[in-house]
């Protein structure tokens, strides 16, 4: 199902004239990896929760060996998917991207393309190797003996690397990519969370009304062209200013006639009539999405405020165990835990919503390098390089998703629905004595290590405090960008049914009218 969705999504947006097999497969595979990785968090939480009963005792089959096997299985799943993400981000996607950049030169042979692409990709591979080395050999603990020799210090580094099974190295590399993913989430996801629901609610403009406006614009431009050409009827040459104006009007007329063809096709399309019938459903989905966004944003704000007021500060990465200020999501999850599997459904909905709003944000904003727009994401007209950029950005955003969910419900992400037993003293009035009675309590940071199993997600998230501190400030930036995007989306009018058909869309062909239908 995931591969089918990825294939449909990529084929929907890729250019029909520039589609390539290798870039298409790479985009589909990368998008599938992003979606599969996003599913790890609810699976991880479910497995640690499933090992225990609600009364705080372990299930009969969940002995120490079985628990360790389950933890190792999840850990190896993270190793595998995160390693694949590193491979895609640092080698495969850059290689395919540079290969097609070189392909734009008609006189370049395939051998030269491969050599050039490999040369540029080598730089990304070196960066990946450096991140792994830094994460592997910068110890989180220091040797106790300060008078140890250099060889003993090196030996200590390798022993620590072996004892962690490379977890620190991979965690540092993934955390570095997650930091980039945080910037992408601030840019695209925060805006997409407001743009996607409001666009569904507002809908698009009428094709018939747009066609009428377009016809009026054509008549006006044609009148301007006739006025300029009339100046040369008596044999006088046009001035340089008139020539420039004539050229601009002629280009404008070509664009308007192109719009006229597409508008005529859309107006008579059965797909347009079908989408019109689904208009009430889109409004309902838009309202649902905006409610999920408000739940997410309010919870994130209260969670960050809690960290600002009650955490140990920047030196600890603003980490808190439990919640001093309750937020809607943190209150809702314990209630849903009583009815299996409602809590997992909610977490899955939030993660999927996070991904789809990221896609919407990238489509609306496009791909930029600072103030320079590199590519547009348009249905049926997206270049292979733009699709590769899109999939790489989604891979990075998915990495940041786990920390965003942890920010909203830290205790739930750490322990799921696990309980553990504590001794409670009960006084009996008849006998005037105390009796110790075990009662279940929700797992938290004070729980014994042998009573509560921590999710593998948490181990990857908090190996390095400085990354946690950066994520904390990133959450504040996310909130600010969401509010700005909400204001912008409210002020913007309805989208055109052929939005993007303008002068700078050089990849539009006249024989592709169907790709603009909505």
TrEMBL record:
<keyword id="KW-0472">Membrane</keyword>
<keyword id="KW-0812">Transmembrane</keyword>
<feature type="transmembrane region" description="Helical">
    <location>
        <begin position="283"/>
        <end position="302"/>
    </location>
</feature>
<dbReference type="GO" id="GO:0005765">
    <property type="term" value="C:lysosomal membrane"/>
</dbReference>
<keyword id="KW-0458">Lysosome</keyword>
<keyword id="KW-0813">Transport</keyword>
<dbReference type="InterPro" id="IPR006876">
    <property type="entry name" value="LMBR1-like_membr_prot"/>
</dbReference>
<dbReference type="GO" id="GO:0007369">
    <property type="term" value="P:gastrulation"/>
</dbReference>
<comment type="similarity">
    <text>Belongs to the LIMR family. LMBRD1 subfamily.</text>
</comment>
<dbReference type="GO" id="GO:0061462">
    <property type="term" value="P:protein localization to lysosome"/>
</dbReference>
<keyword id="KW-0846">Cobalamin</keyword>
<feature type="transmembrane region" description="Helical">
    <location>
        <begin position="21"/>
        <end position="41"/>
    </location>
</feature>
<feature type="transmembrane region" description="Helical">
    <location>
        <begin position="344"/>
        <end position="374"/>
    </location>
</feature>
<feature type="transmembrane region" description="Helical">
    <location>
        <begin position="167"/>
        <end position="191"/>
    </location>
</feature>
<dbReference type="InterPro" id="IPR050854">
    <property type="entry name" value="LMBD1_LysCbl_Transport"/>
</dbReference>
<keyword id="KW-0306">Gastrulation</keyword>
<protein>
    <recommendedName>
        <fullName>Lysosomal cobalamin transport escort protein LMBD1</fullName>
    </recommendedName>
</protein>
<feature type="transmembrane region" description="Helical">
    <location>
        <begin position="76"/>
        <end position="100"/>
    </location>
</feature>
<comment type="subunit">
    <text>Interacts with ABCD4; this interaction induces the translocation of ABCD4 from the endoplasmic reticulum to the lysosome. Interacts with ABCD4 and MMACHC; this interaction ensures the transport of cobalamin from the lysosome to the cytoplasm. Interacts with INSR, adapter protein complex 2 and clathrin heavy chain.</text>
</comment>
<keyword id="KW-0170">Cobalt</keyword>
<dbReference type="GO" id="GO:0031419">
    <property type="term" value="F:cobalamin binding"/>
</dbReference>
<keyword id="KW-0217">Developmental protein</keyword>
<feature type="transmembrane region" description="Helical">
    <location>
        <begin position="464"/>
        <end position="488"/>
    </location>
</feature>
<feature type="transmembrane region" description="Helical">
    <location>
        <begin position="120"/>
        <end position="140"/>
    </location>
</feature>
<dbReference type="Pfam" id="PF04791">
    <property type="entry name" value="LMBR1"/>
</dbReference>
<keyword id="KW-1133">Transmembrane helix</keyword>
<feature type="transmembrane region" description="Helical">
    <location>
        <begin position="386"/>
        <end position="406"/>
    </location>
</feature>
């Amino acid at each position: 199902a995931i591969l089918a969705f990825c294939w449909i999504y990529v084929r929907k947006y890729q250019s029909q004239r520039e589609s390539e097999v290798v870039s298409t497969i790479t985009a589909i595979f990368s998008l599938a990896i992003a979606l599969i990785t996003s599913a790890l968090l609810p699976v991880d939480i479910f497995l640690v929760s499933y090992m225990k009963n609600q009364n705080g005792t372990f299930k009969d089959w969940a002995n120490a060996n079985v628990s360790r096997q389950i933890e190792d299985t999840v850990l190896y799943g993270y190793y595998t998917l995160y390693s694949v993400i590193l491979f895609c981000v640092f080698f495969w996607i850059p290689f395919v991207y540079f290969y097609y950049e070189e392909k734009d030169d008609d006189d370049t042979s395939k051998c030269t393309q491969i050599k050039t692409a490999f040369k540029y990709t080598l730089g990304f591979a070196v960066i990946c190797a450096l991140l792994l080395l830094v994460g592997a050999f910068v110890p989180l603990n220091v040797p106790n003996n300060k008078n140890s020799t250099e060889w003993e210090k090196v030996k200590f580094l390798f022993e620590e690397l072996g004892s962690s099974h490379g977890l620190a190295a991979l965690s540092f590399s993934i955390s570095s990519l997650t930091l980039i993913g945080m910037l992408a989430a601030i840019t695209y996801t925060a805006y997409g969370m407001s743009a996607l629901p409001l666009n569904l609610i507002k809908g698009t403009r009428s094709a018939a009304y747009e066609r009428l406006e377009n016809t009026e614009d054509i008549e006006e431009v044609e009148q301007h062209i006739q006025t300029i050409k009339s100046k040369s009827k008596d044999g006088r040459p046009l001035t340089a200013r008139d020539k420039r104006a004539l050229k601009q009007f002629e280009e404008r007329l070509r664009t308007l006639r192109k719009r006229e063809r597409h508008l005529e096709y859309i107006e008579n399309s059965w797909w347009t009539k079908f989408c019109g019938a689904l208009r009430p459903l889109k409004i309902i989905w838009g309202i649902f999405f905006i409610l999920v966004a408000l739940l997410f944003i309010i919870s994130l704000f209260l969670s960050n405020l809690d960290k600002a007021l009650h955490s140990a500060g920047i030196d600890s990465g603003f980490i808190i165990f439990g919640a001093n200020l309750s937020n809607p999501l943190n209150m809702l999850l314990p209630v849903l835990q009583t009815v299996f599997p409602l809590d997992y459904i909610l977490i899955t909905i939030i993660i999927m919503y996070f991904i789809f709003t990221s896609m919407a944000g990238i489509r609306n904003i496009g791909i930029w390098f600072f103030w320079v727009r590199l590519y547009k994401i348009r249905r049926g007209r997206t270049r292979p390089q733009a699709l590769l950029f899109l999939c790489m950005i989604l891979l990075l955003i998915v990495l940041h998703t786990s920390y965003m969910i942890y920010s909203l419900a830290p205790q739930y992400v750490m322990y799921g629905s696990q309980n553990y037993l504590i001794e409670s003293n009960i006084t009996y009035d008849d006998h005037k004595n105390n009796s110790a009675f075990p009662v279940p309590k929700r797992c938290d940071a004070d729980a014994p290590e042998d009573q509560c199993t921590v999710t593998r997600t948490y181990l990857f998230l908090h190996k390095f405090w400085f990354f946690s501190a950066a994520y904390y400030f990133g959450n504040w930036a996310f909130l600010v960008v969401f509010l700005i995007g909400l204001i912008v989306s409210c002020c913007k009018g309805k989208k055109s049914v052929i939005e993007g058909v303008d002068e700078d869309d050089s990849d539009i062909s006249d024989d592709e009218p169907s790709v603009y239908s909505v």
